[in-house]
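Per reviewer request, we include the raw input and output of the structure prediction for the construct analysed in the revised manuscript.
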Amino acid sequence: MKKLTKWGMLILLILFIGVQFIPKDNNRQLHISKYDIRNLYIIPKNTLKMIEKSCFDCHSNNTDYPWYSKIQPVRYFLDNHIREGKNMLNFSEFGNYSERRKRNKIRSIISQIQEDKMPISTYTIIHREADLSNQDKKIVIDWFNSIK
């Protein structure tokens, strides 16, 4: 039994090391596209800063990857989360949305922030700077209301 456990642990270690060599795509854009929300609307600097730090890692084409993203299988989960986030809302492609879809996304953003669903708690636990205070939420919501 001990031999089986040692072999099992060795196999797990080899698999863990092996998956580290699986190539990873980076969600990094070299420039801001013309469809980016930052090019569509005049966003006050403080509001933009809040949106960038609380939303852009998962909802844009430019993720600021933390150190632990270099470790598999953590990276796999991060990439999956980013892919899902971008499918729901992508600020880098906001200009490609129809006017109706933009309005719906803005209403959804406001609702998600008001109901404390965004930014998600699993993100803000690690990224404390992304947690919006009540005052920050009001500023962001007021800005989104102004472009509805």
